Amino acid sequence: MEKEIIKRETMERFLSECAVPKKTKNDRLYDCIWRAHRDVMVARRRQDIFVEYYKVHKDIIEKLHTFIRNTTKALTSNLLFDALSIFDVEFGAKQKIINMTLKYIVILNTYGELNIPVLEEECDCPIDSRILSCKKVNRPYIKWTSPKFDKEVYEEIKEIISKDDIGGESGLKFDFENWNNS
What are the tens digits of pLDDT across the range 83-98? Predict the structure, then answer.
């Protein structure tokens, strides 16, 4: 038997911190939400959209953090959409921060850094340019950062994803399997 030079726990911590870098010292949930927010902000190349979203980012982060910490329900995309219904931000940004937050929570749950109940089968795929361009969705002309990306377009993309998801596992599973398949 080979000697274990690098412990599994060390590798797991490294992988989880690559996915969700630590911003705070003691709150990995906050780190998940902050990283999801950063993912949204990186795509904000148009200054007007960036400024508009940035004005409410702290409120959205705080609302998500408080809601997730205080809810007794297992997390789903719909539950978090309801929690953020008070914010008037473009739909693409809202779905991205919600679904990326759930993705990061699932990752950290898997590596034992969080223990937050998530109904993975009820989590949507975070829709971004990589997913829209992947072979199975094949909608590169749709921009999730556009004001035209609304609930109707989102539902259309979810339908395409659900047809591919034969086992009915989740949109997150689709994301993990297809994000690099553009």
Answer: 999 998 889 989 999 9
